[in-house]
Design brief:
The structure holds 2 protein chains of 2 kinds. By secondary structure, chain A is mainly beta. The N and C termini of chain A lie far apart (about 70 Å). The longest helix of chain B has 30 residues. Classes of the chains: A mainly beta, B mainly alpha.
Chain lengths: ~450, ~160
């Protein structure tokens, strides 16, 4: 180690170049540390194990978005890449922030905060649902109010049986380039986002929300570990079809607790980004957009385009900037990646065990209607939502129509996601918002859960 | 460094301002980019601040945590590289991982057994004495000295093979 030519010695003897903290770093660290202390105290007080940390953030979307698998157990589901205006909730009048950045919005109840509770806003029609673990969740949608239609949110701590009011951003419904239609919460139940196409963030469980500025429409958003990822698109779709007619997309990320989003290298291109194309697991992330599959780490570092073997490449990974062959839905299940590809003859299921490098054709999907969302989970069924209902399969080859209780509107379902092998949620399409359905038997039957 | 009280926010901020730039710079030489370095340094401070009332030597704790986080980062990037090699085995490779300037030396250190690597980084690179490293790793001083000796021997041999 004394040889001056020794690269080890040279490396060690080089002074460390100081790297000053970015602006606001101390405040973010302090806030995160305080939150962890609170979580630890809460866990110790209640005698609850830290199992929550391993729980899945199960974001679900309805209306225009899609869910993303959160963690290892993954709540999975994918929204259709084919934006069909008729299946989207329409934007109605609504209180709408005229582009400003309100510093502090009216306070509302926080997620799983305890204390006094209020009933959800009357007439709330959810357009998106997010589940944090196997019991706590939230929906966002629109509800009648004095101004016409207002954004409203509700929360549950028993997987949708009982609902109470949750603070919501004063954003208005999705309307071209403004408003929100989707909701996500991180597993800490403190950090959350309302988006699609606008973006609002909360860092206190939904009590207050802050509007953030992004370089385009937020098409999709998901969290895993300590990071949140968002797909931002350049689109011209109007009303609730804000994710239609997209010409380019880019992936952004931020540390949980921060409002500083930065572009992810290697995950931007021309083409259409669609809700549900972003799927994150604790092992890595995937983005299906522009007829291509991108993959990368869910911490830091660049993403890259996955180039599948030509012989096995599904048609919907042809690289065509605009999908022409029909919907393309992506759903990770453990180390297996499922891809449902539409074509003139229907929908075909493919699976990949190497992150999309090679694909195996599983078989045709026997389901009626236009596919809108796909979900898969280890040890459970593969579940597909379409404009006519919900279908499930244990092996990807034999498909069954799920039993439904309650009224399903003509548009069918916009989203389906699985929290565990048994539990899952789905949201119907429909003008002005959807209806929430829940399964407790792996997708074989679904029961309507009113948000009241 | 004296024991810090959790209620003393000024002391916390002082510690942050004093230690963050060097810790982040230290991490940056071990990882790929500034962003990862900031994330690891911030996470180390977050863990410190969330439980520092029970710590006598916050600086040691910071570097210990950062060392573990760097190790985790290396594991992840190693998995990615393997996956990328598999995926691109039949197509022209695209450089999905950009080696930084210290990559060769870093790769050699990364290849050390974990037991030797932690001691090496904390002693030779972070500048902690053998006694401090022994306390941080919970090993006898003699064991740490032996680990350092073996780490140096392995690196020297690896450099010889590479040159």
């Amino acid at each position: 180690m004394t040889d001056p030519r020794d690269p080890i010695e040279r490396w060690l003897s080089t002074d460390v170049e100081l790297l000053p903290p970015p602006p606001g770093a101390y405040e973010r660290v302090h806030r995160r540390a305080r939150r962890r202390r609170s979580m630890r105290a809460l866990g110790a007080a209640s005698g609850v194990a830290v199992v929550i940390a391993a729980a899945v953030v199960l974001p679900q979307v309805a209306g225009n978005l899609l869910p993303n698998g959160g963690g290892p157990a993954s709540v999975s589901g994918t929204k259709s890449t084919s934006a069909t205006p008729s299946t989207r909730p329409s934007a109605s009048r609504g209180t709408h922030h005229a582009g400003g950045h309100p510093a502090a919005l009216p306070k509302g109840p926080a997620l799983a905060a305890g204390g006094p509770t209020e009933a959800p806003a009357a007439g709330l029609r959810p357009t998106s649902v997010t589940l944090v673990g196997t019991e706590v969740g939230a929906v966002i949608g629109q509800a009648p109010c004095a101004e016409g239609t207002c954004t409203a949110a509700a929360q549950t701590s028993d997987y949708g049986t009982v609902w109470t009011r949750l603070g919501a951003p004063d954003a208005g419904p999705a309307n071209g380039s403004s408003g929100v239609s989707q909701i996500r919460f991180n597993v800490d139940r403190t950090d959350g986002w309302a988006y699609g196409p606008g973006l609002y963030a909360t860092h206190n469980g939904g009590r207050t929300w802050r509007q953030l500025s992004m370089p385009g429409r937020v098409i999709d958003l998901s969290t895993v570990g300590g990071m949140a990822f968002a797909v931002v698109g350049t689109c011209t779709g109007g009303g609730a079809t804000f994710a239609a007619h997209c010409t380019s997309f880019a992936l952004y990320r931020t540390a949980i607790g921060s409002n500083a989003w930065s572009a992810v290298p290697g995950a931007a291109a021309a083409g259409a980004a669609v809700p549900g194309g972003l799927q994150l697991t604790s092992q890595g992330g995937y983005l299906l957009a522009g007829g291509r599959l991108f993959s990368g780490p869910v911490t830091a570092g660049a993403w890259h385009q996955v180039r599948p073997e030509a012989a096995s490449a599904p048609g919907c990974l042809s690289g065509a900037a605009q999908p022409a062959s029909g919907p393309a839905l992506l759903a990770p299940e453990g180390s297996v990646l499922y891809l449902a590809c539409g074509s003139g003859s229907g929908l075909t299921l493919y699976q990949s065990a190497d992150g999309g490098g090679s694909w195996q054709r599983t078989g045709p999907i026997a389901a009626q209607g236009t596919a809108t969302s796909l979900a898969a989970i280890s040890g459970g069924n593969i579940v597909l939502a379409t404009t006519t209902g919900i279908f499930y399969s244990a092996d990807g080859t034999t498909w069954h129509r799920a039993a439904l209780s309650g009224t399903v509107p003509p548009g069918g379902f916009a989203f389906v996601g699985l929290t565990t092998a048994q539990q899952g949620v789905a949201i119907t399409s429909g003008t002005g918002g959807g209806r929430l359905f829940v399964t407790m038997n792996g997708g074989r039957s679904w029961r309507y859960r009113p948000v009241t | 460094m004296a024991r810090l009280r959790s209620s003393d926010r000024e002391a916390v901020e002082e510690l942050f301002n004093a230690c963050y730039p060097r810790l982040a710079g230290w991490v940056r030489r071990l990882v790929d980019d500034d962003e990862t370095a900031h994330e690891i340094a911030a996470e180390a401070f977050t863990r410190l601040l969330s439980r520092w009332t029970s710590l006598d030597n916050p600086q040691s704790y910071l570097y210990m945590i950062a060392t573990n986080l760097v190790r985790d980062h290396w594991r992840k990037t190693s998995r990615e590289r393997r996956a990328i090699r598999t995926i691109t085995a039949t197509v022209p490779a695209e450089p999905a991982w950009q080696p930084a300037q210290d990559v060769d030396v870093r790769a050699l250190i990364e290849g050390l057994p974990p037991k030797l690597r932690s001691a090496f980084l904390l002693h030779y690179y972070a500048g902690f004495g053998v006694k401090e490293v022994a306390a941080m790793l919970g090993r006898p001083e003699g064991t740490v000295k032996a680990d350092l000796y073996h780490a140096r021997a392995r690196l020297k041999a690896a450099v010889g093979e590479a040159s």
